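Figure 3 (text version): structure tokens given as input.
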């Protein structure tokens, strides 16, 4: 059996998994299913789990996603089929230096931290619906960055 593809999930690829009416659900869900069945090795940055909780706990759907349901779903990701990764202090230093050297400002720092985690994890595919910003902070990984 060959090596399984390592797929890194950005927050934007996680959120649609929990909202049936989400415009990107049909594109993100098959990737999750491939992780769940073991066909693909899923990588989840810890930051994306926290950011998904923030987003989903205020997501404008009716009925609202109940907090206990949301907690259980996110625990399923954290305790389930995904390898959970997180940047370390040296990664933060490298990202901040990289951005400052290029005078890149603003919220893209969070995307750069996610890219750093993807880089360290050895991800073959980086799944995001925010591919423009990801390519901006990691042009060397452009061939791995994909919208699901």
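Below: residues designed for each position.
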């Amino acid at each position: 059996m060959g090596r399984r593809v390592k797929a890194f999930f950005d927050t934007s690829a996680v959120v649609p998994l929990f909202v049936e009416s989400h415009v990107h659900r049909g594109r993100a869900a098959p990737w999750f299913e491939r992780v769940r069945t073991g066909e693909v090795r899923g990588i989840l940055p810890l930051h994306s789990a926290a950011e998904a909780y923030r987003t989903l706990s205020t997501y404008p759907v009716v009925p609202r996603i109940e907090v206990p349901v949301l907690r259980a779903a996110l625990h399923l990701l954290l305790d389930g089929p995904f390898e959970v990764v997180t940047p370390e202090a040296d990664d933060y230093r490298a990202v901040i230096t990289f951005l400052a050297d290029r005078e890149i400002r603003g919220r893209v720092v969070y995307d750069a931290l996610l890219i750093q985690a993807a880089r360290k994890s050895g991800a073959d595919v980086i799944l995001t619906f925010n591919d423009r910003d990801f390519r901006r902070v990691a042009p060397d990984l452009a061939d791995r960055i994909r919208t699901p």
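The longest helix spans residues 108-121.
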